[in-house]
Every structure is written in structure tokens, then in C-alpha cells.
Request: fold
Amino acid sequence: MAYENIVLRKRNMTMVDGYFYSIDEDQDALIVKTDDGTQAYSYPLDTTLTQAITCLEYDGRNFWSLENPGASTVAIRRWYIDNYVLKQRDMFVLSSG
Reply:
């Protein structure tokens, strides 16, 4: 199946094995949807988010999220799924000041 013609409106979305993953800051959950938009899974986060996630990537083992790009402080978080919960493994805070 080819996905070259799909345009994503949310930057906080990545595709893994035919499913679309995004982090919903309002629900504090990783939402997994199929190609027709049906929700397949939902994994609650073990950490409450205070900033909007602007980018989500998957490296084959971990999810990586980016918060606050362009601001003086940027946060990068590394997540993993464990026992049906998306757990934060690391958080890297970068500041320009």
C-alpha cells in the first residue's frame, strides 16, 4: 500500500506499520488510528503534558516528541510502550539562554 499522497494536517503524527500515531495533549494519550480514521488503540501517558507536541517520530523502538520549537527552551522526550502505557524514558531540555 502506498502512502505517498497522504498529507497530514497535524505535525504531531507518524506512521508505523500502516497505523497512524499521534499524541493528544488534551487526553494525555498516544492515539493509534487506521488508514480510514478509525481509532485502533489508545495508550495513556504516564506523564502529564503541559506543552503542545509539535513533532512525533518513531525510530523502531522509541517514540520521540518535540515541544516548543523556536522558543528559548525546547523539550525532547523519549517514550516507549510498556504494559499498554506510553512511558517517558528520558526528557532533554535545551535552552538558548
